[in-house]
Design a protein that fits this description.
Layout: E1 2-8, E2 15-17, E3 29-33, E4 38-45, E5 48-51, E6 61-62, E7 65-67, E8 72-74, H1 79-84, E9 89-90, H2 103-109, E10 115-119, E11 122-130, E12 133-137, H3 139-158, E13 164-168, H4 175-187, E14 191-196, H5 204-211, E15 220-227, E16 231-240, E17 253-262, E18 265-274, E19 277-286, H6 291-310, H7 318-334, E20 340-349, E21 352-359, H8 360-366, H9 368-373, H10 375-385, E22 394-398, H11 405-414, H12 429-442, E23 453-457, E24 461-466, E25 470-475, E26 492-499, E27 512-518, E28 524-530, E29 538-542, H13 549-591, H14 602-618, H15 626-642
Parallel strand pairs: 3-13, 13-14, 15-17, 15-22, 16-18, 19-23
Antiparallel strand pairs: 1-24, 1-26, 2-23, 3-4, 4-5, 4-6, 7-8, 7-9, 10-11, 11-12, 15-16, 16-17, 17-18, 18-19, 20-21, 24-25, 26-29, 27-28
């Protein structure tokens, strides 16, 4: 018997709870929000959630990786590389992770400057890492580099090594995308305890605790709208503060709708909170809709305008597109607070100095269909949850793009003019929620997370295809799916298996029991048994697009090699900086009459100048060897000692 697993892109009301390791088995659990455009890391410390700033003192880090001839740059360090080194700068990799070479990936290939290649039916990134050396990376490897950067940020802050982590993924990520994210964690040297994969485990628990949505008595229905740089989530929760009003959530049942729109994906979930129990009622979304799409619309507009005014086509020039992309993102952000902004780029292309205005009205016109598209999942989630608009007591906005006035207005209009709650920092909410989940797992949350029970959903229907293409649902969505896999446009093949050794019998007589298990991370495990003889002889063909054990091991090894090379580069830079500082201080002392200047004769000054002059020029070389640095520095120090 041959059985095919399939998955439909519709929300499900199947609820499962999370079994977790004993807190005593875990060390400190860091919480990483791996975003399409930006990432963030937090820890639970002394009963409080703390967002960790990176080495540039910023709370969010760009999810970008760049390669030069001498080093690998991750996060903030890549900023100056994007415009001058576009083909070797990788971003938006979250849109590729766990994907196949489908139509959406083909469209993405047109929007990024780096090269995406097909390897075994999956998108890989081909990058020149050094002069004459090109390497092909999987999306998991690039994501692992970002996770490693966030891990190092945490370790620097805490002063100790970190192994355990909770990583966030969009609620509407399918099985392959979730597994690929866990694989990225393994490559980064992390033990991903859980994937925080919906609004409940992302912003919600912290929002309730931090912004005191629970302070009012009685029943409360809350909608949270999370529109970030590239992902979007919408969830509705019902909160019951309890009859006695003595829980940390307060009293009264409440519904909350969470809307999460970030850099690349869009999720809508409806949840209920009842006396400390968080239960997801419905989930919907779009895995390819977010803030990056708004940027692309602006870019397309100005590419056409430049072609019309200057008869120049910049669409094939990656350097010009990199400059334009950065300016378009800046303009988009500015238009959330002002009605007009001017985009200015010197020497954009072929001697052209670009300077054009963009009004908020024009921006809204360019993205009108995308903004309105976010309302579709809201309506579907409301319908699946069986709620009416008036049952939503609170609408909470989460995610950077919820700052866009038009998005706020559409949401407000849909809920008949209801005021939106804007007290939450949209850039930090997801990481805060992941921190709460990590606090529960590690036990670091203490009384603040004690008694919180999370009941999650399978957002996509899971089932099997048997003879004739009939889709048998084992873990169903709420309603509305097609029963034939050939009619399911959004069905995704997860894998196939053969159950062999079935005893001969009449047609339809054999009884085969197929069991689906969805773990806390939403990852599917399947087994099948011939009830007549109890046989479990399965031959499984993996179609999920995940990496093999051998591939992961090889990537872990390569990641360690990259880390070692990064360490050597840092040591060379530190040594060079030390030498430059020493030369600078020596020159200052030599010219300071109150210090060495008064004690040195002309011959001694000449000896110092003769020694420092070639060294000062040498430190400007881009790739100095560390051993030479020490040798030259030693020579200079000996010169000073002899004086």
């Amino acid at each position: 018997m041959r059985t095919i697993l399939a998955i439909q892109y519709f929300g499900s009301l199947f609820v499962f709870s999370a079994a977790k390791k004993e807190a005593s088995e875990l060390g400190t659990v860091t919480r990483i929000n791996l975003g399409t455009t930006y990432s963030c890391v937090v820890v639970f410390k002394d009963g409080n959630v703390e967002i960790i700033a990176n080495d540039q003192e910023n709370c969010i880090t760009p999810s970008w990786v760049a390669f030069t001839n001498t080093e690998r740059l991750i996060g903030e360090a890549r900023k100056n590389q994007a415009a001058v080194n576009p083909e070797r700068t990788v971003f938006d990799v979250k849109r590729l992770i766990g994907q196949n070479e489908d139509k959406e990936v083909q469209n993405d290939m047109k929007l990024v400057p780096y090269k995406i290649v097909n390897k075994d039916g999956k998108p890989y990134i081909e990058i020149q890492i050094k002069d004459g050396e090109t390497k092909v990376f999987s999306p998991e490897e690039i994501s692992a580099m970002i996770l490693t950067k966030m891990k190092e940020t945490t370790e620097s802050y805490l002063g100790k090594k970190i192994k355990d982590a909770v990583a966030t993924v969009p609620a509407y990520f399918n099985d392959a995308q979730r597994q690929a994210t866990k694989d990225a964690g393994v490559i980064a040297g992390l033990n991903v305890q859980e994937l925080s994969m919906n609004q409940l485990r992302q912003p919600l628990p912290t929002n309730l605790g931090r912004y005191s949505l629970d302070r009012k008595d009685g029943e409360k229905h809350i909608l949270i709208f999370d529109l970030g740089g590239g992902t979007c989530d919408v969830s509705i929760l019902t909160i019951d503060n309890g009859a006695n009003g003595n829980t940390h959530l307060g009293g009264g049942e409440k519904n909350i709708l969470v809307f999460d729109l970030g850099g690349g994906t869009f999720d809508v979930s409806i949840l209920t909170i009842d006396n400390g129990v968080f239960e997801v009622l419905a989930t919907n979304g779009d895995t390819h809709l977010g803030g990056e799409d708004f940027d692309h619309r602006i870019m397309d507009h100005f590419i056409k305008l430049i072609k019309k005014k200057h008869e120049k086509d910049i669409s094939k020039d990656n350097r010009a597109l990199g400059k334009l992309r950065r300016e378009c993102e800046r303009a988009k952000r500015a238009l959330s607070n002002q009605h007009q902004v001017r985009l200015e780029i010197e020497s954009l292309f072929d001697g052209i100095d670009f300077s054009e205005p963009l009004t908020r009205a024009r921006f809204e016109e360019l993205n009108n269909d995308l903004f309105r598209k976010t309302m579709g999942p809201v309506k579907k989630a409301m319908k699946d949850a069986g709620l009416e608009k008036h049952q939503i007591d609170e609408i909470v906005l989460v995610g950077g793009s919820t700052r866009i006035p038009k998005v706020q207005q559409l949401l407000k209009d849909y809920f008949d003019g209801k005021e939106l709650n804007k007290r939450i920092n949209p850039d930090e909410a997801v990481a805060y929620g992941a921190a709460v989940q990590g606090g529960i797992l590690s036990g670091e949350g203490g009384d603040k997370t004690k008694g919180v029970l999370l009941l999650d959903v399978a957002p996509l229907t899971l089932g099997i295809e048997t003879v004739g293409g009939v889709m048998t649902k084992l873990i169903p969505r709420n309603n509305g799916e097609r029963s034939l896999t050939k009619d399911c446009k959004n069905c995704r093949l997860l894998g196939t298996f053969d159950l062999t050794g079935i005893a001969p019998a009449q047609r339809g007589a054999p009884q085969i029991e197929v069991t689906f298990e969805v773990d806390v991370d939403g990852i599917l495990n399947v087994k099948a048994e011939d009830k007549a003889n109890g046989r479990f002889e399965l031959t499984i063909t993996n179609e999920k697009g995940r990496l093999s054990r051998e591939e992961i091991d090889q990537m872990v090894k390569e990641a360690e090699e990259f880390a070692e090379e990064d360490k050597k580069v840092k040591e060379r830079i530190d040594a060079r900086n030390s030498l430059e500082t020493y030369i600078y201080n020596m020159k200052n002392q030599m010219n300071d009459k109150d210090k060495l200047a008064a004690k040195l004769d002309s011959d001694e000054k000449e000896r110092i100048e003769t020694t420092t002059k070639p060294l000062n020029g040498w430190t400007t070389i881009r790739t100095p060897r560390r051993r030479i640095t020490k040798k030259r520095s030693k020579k200079l120090r000996l010169c000073a000692i002899q004086l």
